[in-house]
Design a protein that fits this description.
With 447 residues, the chain is α/β, with parallel strands linked by helices. The protein has a single domain (53-367), classed as Metal-dependent hydrolases (TIM Barrel, Alpha-Beta Barrel), CATH 3.20.20. The chain has 14 helices and 20 strands. It has helices at 72-82, 99-109, 131-137, 157-170, 181-193, 201-205, 208-225, 237-248, 260-263, 268-272, 287-298, 314-317, 335-344, 350-364; strands at residues 2-7, 10-13, 16-19, 21-25, 28-33, 39-44, 49-52, 54-59, 84-89, 116-119, 121-122, 142-145, 173-177, 228-231, 253-257, 304-305, 382-392, 411-421, 424-428, 431-432. The strands form 4 sheets. It has a 7-stranded mixed β-sheet. A 6-stranded parallel β-sheet has the order 11-12-13-14-15-16. A 4-stranded mixed β-sheet has the order 5-4-1-6, with no helix packed on it. The longest helix is centred in the middle third of the chain and has 18 residues, at 208-225. The radius of gyration is 21 Å and the shape is globular. The protein binds zinc ion.
Length: 447
């Protein structure tokens, strides 16, 4: 006797689709069968797609730090409603830099999550010796900046080489935000001294050259040291090219991108101001540039998608000059809708969606085979999707404390109807069940 049966649905995995019934026992997928098997409870998924719960590996929930922007309950409710059942979180304003920090954050988050979560640490230039104990204590990855950003000090190539050596020795993975410190610094100086305060300064300050130079250095150092590196938020086909060339040459590098680099154009910075302040900024000058990013998703030169969820409220985005406003966009509510809509319009297949937002990110951080997959033995994290349902993204339905989205008003085809976490229904039609039952997931080093 199984606990739950999801019957008559179409199972979608990266490897293909199949009409199979799925059965759950003790929170795990226990059987996939053509026939009906006995289950205490059943759920009819006729005309629906059954996908693994999505795995969003680059998320900032500001908790503890600035919970007026977001917190774990609100951010993970957004995840649950959108079909994301696993996140990896890190918050720059309250970085995890020691084993004690990790233990304290774990204690604090107990009972605050609606989906399962892993936690990332921040690498710090004068604390490279902290890598090994943190990795063994169970952090999911180390966040690294090449430029001082959000108050986190950047790594110049010398310390970065040393850090990568330590990461390679312990087998740890890192996520690198790549913009060159000296290029962004000298551009900032000249823009500020000319008195510029218009939103256009963001794109000039965070120039594409800064990203390309930093990624070249990071990829080369990865190759020289053997460090496992994920490049965060690739913003352009040129940036993707640096990573895929290095990977082809044997570096252990892969790249993620985010919906903003697949859907938003650079010109929106001028019309929307601080609501489009994030870095790297959107660089597309038209639909052909966006097409090239979707091509890179399809040809495998981008490994996976994450949101880089970093919300501020509209009010917070309106405070102070363009220089002072927080970087970042909300995204957990909207990433899955944007991807389902892309699948409905044929930009990607539903199978590729599952690879990009579930299987590949879970693989990149050692969360497979427990997370990101519809296989027997995996956690029964799964979502039911109506691929043809049309709806419009509205602010009132968002769960994030941001309360707004760059995708507000977009008509979307495809909607997550139900979300199950380890066999329990946690979201139904956008309503998230109380209390949250999300659990901490230790990283590879602790397994
Ligand atoms: Zn980020």
């Amino acid at each position: 006797m199984f606990d739950l049966g999801i019957e008559n649905g179409t199972i979608v995995r990266g490897s293909g689709q199949a009409r199979l019934n799925l059965y759950v026992r003790d929170g795990r997928i226990a059987a996939l069968a053509n026939e009906r098997l006995p289950a205490r409870e059943t759920c009819d998924a006729a005309n629906l797609l059954v996908m693994p719960g999505m795995v969003d590996t680059h998320v900032h929930l500001m908790d503890p730090a600035d919970t007026s922007r977001e917190d774990f309950p609100s951010g993970t409710r957004a995840a649950a409603a959108a079909g994301v059942t696993t996140i990896i979180e890190h918050t720059h304003a309250s970085p995890v830099r020691t084993v004690g920090d990790l233990e304290e954050k774990r204690r604090y988050l107990n009972g605050r999550a609606y989906v399962d979560y892993a936690l990332a640490a921040h690498a710090w230039p004068d604390r490279i010796e902290a890598v090994e104990p943190l990795w063994q204590a169970g952090v999911a990855f180390f966040k690294v900046f090449t430029c001082t950003t959000h108050g986190v000090p950047g790594f110049l190539p010398g310390p970065l080489r040393e850090l990568f050596g330590a990461l390679a020795a312990s087998g740890a993975t890192c996520l690198v935000h790549g913009e060159d410190e000296s290029i962004t610094q000298s551009l900032e100086q000249s823009l500020r001294s000319s008195g510029r305060e218009d939103p256009g300064v963001i794109a000039e300050w965070r120039h594409p050259d800064a990203e390309l130079v930093a990624l070249s250095v990071v990829c080369r150092l990865s190759q020289l040291t053997g460090a496992r590196v994920v490049i965060a938020h690739l913003s352009s086909p040129q940036a993707v090219g640096v990573v895929s060339t290095a990977a082809a040459a044997g570096a252990s590098v892969r790249g993620e991108t985010c919906p903003q680099y697949l859907t938003l154009e650079a010109s929106e910075l001028l019309s929307q101001g601080a609501l489009r302040k994030f870095t790297p900024p959107a660089r597309a000058s038209g639909p052909q540039d966006l097409d090239a990013m979707w091509d890179a998703l399809n040809d495998g030169s981008i490994s996976h998608i994450s949101t880089d969820h970093a919300p501020s409220t509209r009010q917070q985005k309106a405070q102070g000059s363009i220089w002072d406003v927080h970087f970042g966009l909300p995204g957990l509510d909207t990433t899955m809708p944007v991807l389902l809509d892309a699948a409905a319009s044929g930009r990607i297949s539903h199978e590729r969606l599952v690879q990009l937002y579930a299987e590949n990110p879970a693989d990149a951080y050692g969360l497979s085979p427990r997370k990101g997959r519809l296989d027997v033995g995996a956690d029964a994290d799964l979502i039911l999707v109506d691929p043809g349902m049309q709806w419009t993204i509205t602010a009132s339905e968002l769960h994030s404390k941001a309360g707004w989205s760059p995708f507000e008003g977009r008509t979307i085809t495809g909607r997550v109807q139900r979300t199950f976490l380890r066999g329990q229904l946690i979201a139904d039609g956008g309503t998230v069940a109380d209390p949250g039952t999300g659990a901490f997931l230790p990283g590879r080093g602790a397994q």
